[in-house]
Amino acid sequence: MLRTHTCGELRITHVGQTVTLTGWVQRQRDKGSILWIDLRDRYGITQLFFEEGSTPAALMQAAKAVGREYVIQAKGVVAERLSKNDKLPTGDIEIKVTELVVLNTAKTPPFTIEDNTDGGDELRMKYRYLDLRRNPVRESLQLRHKMAQQTRTYLDSQNFIEVETPVLIKSTPEGARDFVVPSRINNGEFYALPQSPQTFKQLLMVSGFDRYYQIVKCFRDEDLRADRQPEFTQIDCEMSFITQEDILSTFEGLIRHLFKTVKNIDMPSVPRMTYDEAMKLYGSDKPDTRFEMKFVEIKELTGGKNFPVFDSAEMVVGICAKGCAEYTRKQLDELTEYVKRPQVGAKGLVYVQCKADGSFKSSVDKFYSADDLKTWAAKFNAQPGDLLLILSGETNTVRKQLNELRLLMGEKLGLRDKNKFSALWVIDFPLLEWDDETKRYHAMHHPFTSPKPDDIKLLDTRPGDVRANAYDMVINGTEVGGGSIRIHDRETQSMMFNHLGFTPEEAKKQFGFLLDAFEFGAPPHGGIAFGFDRLCSIFGGADSIRDFIAFPKNNSGRDVMIDSPSTISAEQLKELGIKVS
Ligand code: ASP
Fold this sequence. Notes:
3 domains, binds aspartic acid, alpha+beta
């Protein structure tokens, strides 16, 4: 080894020992007759010390010559520091250097490699290998490593086995487009990269594996959205001979294990809420339950007063923002502007200020008396000092709009603390979802999800009302995982394909292998997959998943470091049998 210790290791107890360290020059401070170098490696920073007189002149010269990010090896004696640095674990000591070897020089890095960097996103991505030297990014990847380790530990303890499934496959329907890979040997034919290992994990259940998991790359060619990666990682799991209850408790166990072992947080048992309830109380199937501010519907209190906006609305619904009654005109206008933005799409916002003296002031004073407003306030359980924010319109639309406003108010009131965690199971999702573009029902989760037995009878008459044995886990308003109990017989699966608009031929062509497998003794089974990158970013208290991925792509799906995607040669295209016009 080129070193005896790491840069994060030495303490006061090592004083007097001769050691050799290696690492990168984070910083060099040259005071003429005294010179310090902060030497950095993955484990920390140790201060090297050189002093005219005690340090030989040639060595002093060599130390002055090193630059930022040089890779060096330094041998010396551990000494107690005169002025200690309590911010560094190694801050009590320094190394009085006796030998210095430059292992490699370095060009001046394009941005500062310190906790706070001056590098913009693109630059950091272009030189990601330098960015990865920075503590916050390195720590994010270490957290990811720990999460993966603990995931394996937990699932192993529950008898799951990790099985690798292929990457060159055929389309799997998770609702996105496939990335495809042309086959040279089978000209004109293509593999698809898995959007998830869904069909394979179900086949593993038919094989009797009983409990499978895999920390696995998935690929989805979706439209670009901030913080979406075309390739991402899932903790993918499947179990046989279970009910939905078993899945929920097993994977709640996983999440609680991760919180305990990675963050030392005792997460309480995860509450459950049906999809319908979530939409009614929060206007979202992934509510942020770090704070309450539940929706209150007041349509029945608003009629008969000739306020056309409310009278014509299917739904009148609001939230109570605690302690915001004294919002200024300007602040209220800003909220109105916010809900009117095209991304939210409300026509306007009604507010009621519940003043500290018990009076009310509202934007609809013309229509509603103080007594009316008092009954509203009572329904909201509002106290003097609170502010009611009310929207109206078509039920589903207005709920979605109010969800945005609720999240904004949560943010403003500091209720969305990144170091606080609130998990929730959302259950009983609808099986099907209407798609306006194709004018058809689509599987909300995927076509292998089993309908609730009681609801199957509604499939023909009220398909939108059929509920599925499908569930999501939500943490802090982000969907971190989702899964379902599967269909495990050919007949039901064929019926489902039929409802989803597949002809029997299409179903056979695309999923014949699965339908066939279901005729050879498929056990009842179900599973779940967690978005691993996202889960890591939530544990890390970060907004973006990027720093939890070693080499991420940018928002246009590009890897700017290796410059990919890129064109390929005419020769390669020809070999693959691809004609480009
Ligand atoms: N394959 C699903 C997904 O990727 C998860 C599951 O149903 O297990 O979302």
